[in-house]
Amino acid sequence: PAKKKDIRDYNDADMARLLEQWEKDDDIEEGDLPEHKRPPAPIDFSKIDPGKPESILKLTKKGKTLMMFVTVSGNPTEKETEEITSLWQGSLFNANYDVQRFIVGSNRAIFMLRDGGYAWEIKDFLINQERCADVTLEGQVYPGKGAGESEKVKNKTKPEKTKKKKDVDKKSNSVKEDNRATKQREEL
């Protein structure tokens, strides 16, 4: 039997053990669980339009945290970007969208959504703003009203991703050719 210890004599290890005992018997509600431990929401396949791949993404991102990048057009300072995106965030808040905003550059911001199911509605709002150059959502770049004519290519994929893949393929081929152990094995 464990010897009873006065609560005033508890050290950090004793407190941690006590907390574990309390949590072991606790029933944690599903909403209080961290996002990665929550069961995924059931998907209603009757709402999926096969002609629109975005409808599938909307349903799979429902209830999950999602981030989108927003670029402000022109050449704004970080303070101007802060003011413009603050106005957009306020408008979204007034429309009952829970959005957090983080400035990541002089003309870029991240909008973090608690429920990714609303991301495409928010994207539609943002690209209709005069100072929005583009919105990047799930790897797709959507040009905004503030984009230049050369940038207005609908749903262009980021070119950096394909470029990186080509560079990796080139590097892996050159490594195979330069491997001396392989050349010696072939000569033997």
From TrEMBL:
It is found in: Endoplasmic reticulum. One of its GO terms (biological process) is protein folding. This is LRP chaperone MESD. It holds the Pfam family Mesd. Residues 148-188 have a biased composition (Basic and acidic residues). Residues 23-32 have a biased composition (Acidic residues). GO terms for molecular function: low-density lipoprotein particle receptor binding. Its main location: endoplasmic reticulum. It comes from the Eukaryota. Belongs to the MESD family. Residues 23-45, 140-188 are annotated as: Disordered. GO terms for cellular component: endoplasmic reticulum. Keywords: Chaperone, Endoplasmic reticulum, Signal, Wnt signaling pathway. InterPro entries: MESD.
